[in-house]
Description:
The chain has one domain. Strand 7 and strand 8 form a beta hairpin. The two termini are about 10 Å apart. It contains no helices and 10 strands. The strands form 2 sheets. Strands 1, 3, 6, 7, 8 and 10 form a 6-stranded mixed sheet that branches. A 4-stranded antiparallel sheet has the order 2-9-4-5, with no helix packed on it. By secondary structure, it is mainly beta. It is about 0% helix and about 45% strand.
Amino acid sequence: MPFRILDPAQNGGRGLVVLEGINASSKFPREVVIPVGQQGTRLFFLGNVHGWSSSGEGVGEWGAVAEYVIHYADGQTQTVPIITGRTADDWTAVSASEVFVGLRGEPWHLNILGVTLRPVRVERIVFRDLGTPVSPVLVAATLER
């Protein structure tokens, strides 16, 4: 799956999103909005790792540490929970069962998570921290048509 990763040198020193988490600096955002404005069949997210706490115990019905909320043009939403051990893991320890390692360095890695979409235009994606000790990371997203 191709991803275009932002060059920090051409983007004001920014190349990825690290959400706040309760153990990180408050200079990180609590959520980010990613405009889309297109219809596709699937979304792929590159990142799905976290830092500042390896346990990553989550909250809510899924035990999630973060979530992607996909907003469709018809007003409906689709929530994709980011769950330690399933759809995310610590950036230095490969352990998530429902993602694939997309990039790897030493000691880090980035996971790919694929999501099937409804046949409706996606207006935006909200990547949101859920107030746990970890800081979730997103590097890129690709819409498959």
